[in-house]
Each structure stands twice: as C-alpha cells, then as structure tokens.
Design goal:
With 462 residues, this protein is an alpha/beta fold. It has helices at 2-6, 24-27, 41-55, 59-75, 79-95, 148-160, 179-190, 203-224, 231-241, 293-310, 325-337, 371-405, 412-422, 425-430, 433-440, 442-452, and strands spanning 109-114, 122-129, 132-140, 169-172, 195-197, 249-258, 261-271, 274-275, 281-284, 318-322, 344-348, 355-357. 34% of the residues are buried.
C-alpha cells in the first residue's frame, strides 16, 4: 500500500543512483526510481516524509500536505502529477475510516456486501469473528445480469461452500433468493441453526454500509486503478510460489461442461495489476469426447501457446490452471512438448484452495488472509465466470435451435436467423406478431407460437 500510494522504494537496492535501470516497481509506477537516479534527493525525501505521516496515522497533516502539492502541480500545469495527488487524497480520505472495527455484541457474525457495475461484479466480504474484522475476500460471479436477490444467494453458496467456519448469523444488505433453503443448507454445514438477516436500521445496517463502501473501493482498485495496483500482490505471489521475479502477466484457464456436453474452456488475463477483459479468449473443445478435464486442458493450452509461438507473440510469466495435480500435470506436459519447460505453471484446487507449482514437490497452503491467495482466487473466479457464461450461451443456442427445428417448415438457416434476432425461446414468445411475421411470414409465425407456447390449464397426473 505504501509503495502504491507514495512510490517509495521497498526493495533492498542501494538508493545511490548507480543501478543502470530501475526494477519492476518503477515499471508498475510503484517507485520513482531513486536507485537509478530518476528522482532528485529533495523530491524523494518529500515522498518518504508523506509515507511516514501515513504510517503514523497523521491523516490531517498528510492531507494538508498532499492538497498543497496537488495545487502546486496544477499551477505549473503538471496535470498528470496533479491527478496523482488528487487520487491519493481521495484514497487517504477513504482509508481514514479504520479498517478494523471492535464492537460489543457482534461476535460470531459475518457481514457481506457487494458493489456491482457492468460485467465486472466483484463482491467484497468482511468476515467478523469475536467482534473484530478477521479477513476480507473479493469474488466475481458467473452472471452479472442476475437480480440482487439471486446474486446474493449465488454468492452465499459460493463463499460458504469452501469456508472453514459458518457463524450463527449472516448479515446482508439484500435478502437472498430462497433464503429458507440457504439457511437449511448452512445449518447442515454448521451443525446448528443459522440465520440470514437484512437489517433496515441501526448499527448493523451502518456496519453493512461501511462494508459496501469497501466493496466499491475494491472495485475501483481492481477495474479502474492504474498499473501500480497489483505490484504488492505480484510480489506476494512471487514469494509464495518461490518464483525468481514477480509475475507481470498471468494467463488462467478453466473448463466448463454439462455431463460432458458442450465442453468449452476460458482463458483470462491479469496484467500489471488489472484484469484485461479485452484479451480474454474462449475455446470450443474439438478433440475430446465426454467430460475429460485433463484432456480438454491439454487441448486448449496446446492450442493457445502453439499459436503464440507461431505468431511470435508474448508469453505470460505464469500460467494458472483451475484444478489440482492432475490438471497441472496435463498442462505442463503439453508445454513440455512445445519446448516451453521454463514457463511457470501453477494450479489451485477447488474447495481446499491449495496451490501446486510444477517442479515443486508438495502442496502450497497459504493463510486465508494472504494477498497472494486473494490474487489467485480472484483470477481463478474470473476464469470460471467467463467459462460458465460462454458455456451457458452455447447450451442456450443449442436448446433453442433444437426446439425450433421441431416446427414444420423451420430449417437450420431460419432457426439461426431467429436466434440472432430474438436470442431465445422466451424472446420469440415475447415478440410481437408483427416482428415474428416479418422474419418468417404469418403462417410460420403461427406454427412457431403454437409449438413453443407452454401448455396451459389441467393438472398433472398423480
């Protein structure tokens, strides 16, 4: 955090300007490069003093100093520098709300809140135990189009499926869909009663509001922050995995299918501290029949890096696989055949959240509060979301096309045209008669409505 905010050196280099070029921290805008003489002594001394004020909790003095420097930069038309200080002022003001809360009567409770915007819906979780905020975690979910109620229910299932402890009470801003079923499931996992509550007033609502603000700040950092945002996480991951250098670029893979049908894979990219949706890729599995994750991973990893080598494009610093030892081995064998034995490959096993690194014996178990684990989880969850979203889209298209082909007079080309126009069976049924007739004529439009309309009236047989 200190490096990200104040760009002071946190490495062990001599700060005498003798280094021929700065390290990764400078490239990620986390340091001004005193080791390579890229910043003057007076300017760097001022940076150190500001970092010291921050660490000592002297926010009032720090904010006054930062605002003065922002105004000075603006007067000299150094607008990029002024913008840096403006963002720094906002961050310090947000962090002036203490990150740890102590309270009476809040023991054995979890408080969950989220912030969502567009197609990137991270959910920030603060876990309270014995009156103290013990941990924090961020997730991205599969379908950003869900209602807040469905969104909350899906998140609770995802989070508590792997959580070690489940409290008596869980507080959310939005009451989840199918709350009774969730409470029953949670009670079974806990071995005792669990309540999901959504307070409308009082201190617990105030606490949830604070958690929601932290979720918003997490979103800003993850999806709008500059290149410097991830350097500490990258350094933590380097240390956790024993890598020679912090990974600047990570490419992660996941497989999705339904009982072996419509198998697809996703690849997502984390680079310079941010997810890069414009570089995501999805794959249809071509050579594997049935649900074989090992063979499917081998196929897509081989396809990805065969093409990268052929086109002379950059390779990642780390390949991340969603899975355990078997999936890791499958990916590593393919990379070996491509003579990419020096490319680092790691995997993360579901539920246990255990990491494995190719070439390193044994498992890597990180603390739940580890920033390295948080980074890997975030990338893994995004790969899973992207794979499942693509899989659902393909399955929906196949189901829709199959239903239309049952209508006399509808062939494959017309079914595809209707899919492109209306998107789903529900979309066809919701279309106005004029819109549907414009596509296929009145006769076929009547047939489609007759065949696709759900049955009405009557009772099911006992």
């Amino acid at each position: 955090m200190v490096a990200r905010f104040f760009r002071v050196a946190i490495c062990h280099e001599k700060l005498d300007g003798s280094r021929p070029r700065p390290c990764l921290y400078y490239q990620l805008n986390q340091c001004t490069g005193p080791c390579a003489g890229l910043v003057g002594p007076e300017e760097y001394r001022a940076q150190v003093q500001e970092a010291r004020l921050f660490l000592e909790g002297r926010d009032k003095d720090l904010l006054a100093r930062l605002k003065e420097r922002m105004q000075e930069a603006s007067r000299h038309e150094q607008f990029e520098t002024a913008a840096h200080y403006r963002d720094l002022v906002r961050s310090v003001e947000g962090l002036s709300v203490r990150q740890r809360f102590t309270s009476v009567g809040l023991e054995d409770q979890d408080y969950l809140a989220h912030y969502r915007e567009g197609d990137n819906p991270p959910r920030e979780v603060f876990q309270m135990r014995e009156g103290v905020v013990a941990s924090r975690r961020e997730f991205s979910l599969e379908d950003p189009q869900e209602s807040d109620e469905a969104f909350t229910a899906a998140y609770l299932q995802q989070y508590y499926a792997s959580a070690e402890g489940i409290p008596q009470e869980i507080y959310t801003l939005t009451e989840p869909a199918e709350k009774d079923l969730l409470e029953e499931w949670l009670a079974g996992r806990r071995g005792g009663k669990v309540r999901i509550l959504s307070p409308q007033r009082g201190p617990k609502l105030s606490f949830l509001t604070t958690v929601a603000e932290n979720a918003r700040l997490a979103f800003e950092q993850s999806f709008r922050g500059g290149a410097s945002q991830g350097v500490q996480e990258a350094e933590a991951l380097r240390e956790a995995l024993g890598l020679e250098e912090p990974p600047f670029r990570v490419e992660a893979f996941d497989i999705s299918n339904t009982q072996g049908t419509d198998s697809v894979a996703s690849m997502v990219v984390w680079e310079a501290g941010k997810m890069r949706p414009g570089q995501y890729r999805h794959f249809k599995i071509r050579t594997v029949e049935g649900a074989d994750d090992f063979a499917s991973l081998a196929e897509v990893v081989g396809r990805r890096y065969t093409r990268q080598l052929k086109e002379g494009k950059e390779l990642p610093d780390l390949v991340l696989i969603d899975g355990g030892k078997g999936q890791l081995r499958a990916a590593a064998e393919v990379l070996g055949r491509l003579d990419l034995v020096t490319l680092q490959v790691a995997s993360i096993a579901k539920r246990e959240e255990i990491l494995y690194l190719q070439g390193r014996a044994g498992e890597i178990a990180l603390e739940p509060t580890s920033s390295a684990l948080h980074l890997v989880q975030r990338i893994r969850d995004e790969a899973h979301r992207f794979a499942v979203t693509y899989h659902r889209r393909l399955r929906s298209r196949r189901t829709f096309t199959s239903a239309l082909l049952q209508v006399p007079g509808i062939g494959l080309s017309r079914a595809r045209r209707l899919l492109a126009t209306f998107g789903s069976v529900r979309g066809v049924l919701a279309a106005s008669p004029e819109a549907l007739e414009k596509q296929v004529g009145k006769l076929l439009a009547d047939r489609i409505r007759h065949h696709l309309a759900p049955p009405t009236g009557g009772n099911a047989d006992p």
